[in-house]
Fold:
Amino acid sequence: MKILKFGGTSVGTVDSLTNVKKIVDSLDQPAIVVVSALGGLTDRLIATARSASEGKEDYIDEMKIISSRHFDIIDALIPAIRKDDIKSAISSLLKELGDIFKGLSLIRSLPERTLDLVVSFGERMSSIIVAGMLNDARHHDSLSFMRTERWFNKDIADRQLTDSLIKKEFPLPLTQHCVMGGFISRDRDTNEITNLGRGGSDYSAALVAAALDADELEIWTDVDGFLTTDPRIVKNVKLIPSMTFVESMELCSFGAKVIYPPTIYPVFHKNIPIRILNTFNPSAPGTFICDGYDGKPRVCGVSSLGNIAVITISGALASNVAEINTRAYNVMSRNGIGVLLVGQPDNGTDFSIAVPASDLDKAVRLFETEFSQELREEEVVSIKGEKDMTIIAVVGEGIKKISGLGPRLVNTLWRNGIEVKSVSDGASETTIAVVVKKDDSGKALSLIHESSIERS
Ligand code: ASP
Ligand code: MG
Structure:
């Protein structure tokens, strides 16, 4: 049994939905179809909620646009016998959404949970429409089985509870196609509507695939698959026909926008392969992600992640690699800050760590507390943060075994006048990462792609 996830552009227009219909109706077995909101809708819902909460009335026009977009699709694609039912389901959701916007414009504030409620309408509507459009499909309401819990200031999936609810919701073998909205969920304690984060439909699909031991997870999108790097920045990119779970995980955590990074863990764990496919070019082979690796070190792709800050801790303590690493990691993870990279230049007196720029101030304060004694005793002389950095990650199984690759890349950058702020060190055997200034990032990406991929 397969899980097929269709992203926003795939369900965005009558034409793209016609492709979706062809793809699903031609399957030879019932499958679970997970859909995003119509392309661009989540952004517009957020913008409209913000503007309504400032007392503006443009939500009235926006509601007309949202309504006609959904109704045009229903008119074009839903068979006559189901049209009235689908129209009335969508109408009542739209009525509720309009009322919420009106409420926001009156109370002039936008609580986080209300925004979660507003964005949920995107997937609630798209999933009803897609289920109605297919030949033989049933709609399943994700809000009744996807559960989150609070973790610091975030909502994260409650894996155990969600797993068991998914198993109950979809008894196997399936007898017809099942369609559900991605992204949306409810808090397990308060029952309020929540979501799995922007781009989270991929993750919903992965949770379903893992809970049901699916044979394959297909992510249908608007590109042919993973490319060796970002084609908007670099010219000679190639499609990557296959890669391992770890390679895809590293590329996505360092900025490749193909899949939402948390998606990979649940299926990796169960060894369920992922296939990235293009709704607009369905016969293209795509990228196949599985466990297979032939043992030969290789470079698979290069990705880049902006909006990074680097914190450098200087002083004698930095030479105690094990201690500073452990303490720095622990204090960040206890406080919900994801460490993106740890670097240790050869000078032995600096230790650097990269975190999302939005966490910079908090991270510096935490380090100042963690190392307060060392600061007094001058074992640590300074803790400095710098914003506007980009991480460039070169990813491939066994990459650290390719002799001289790391130094060669750093040299290439230096020779071209690009300052390397930090070089990754340690944990991952699959990634060599460097940090450069944001303004240098495009040039650095091209140079690194050229010297690691185009020449290999
Ligand atoms: N509609 C949501 C978003 O735009 C979730 C998704 O598409 O994966 O972020
Ligand atoms: Mg997406």
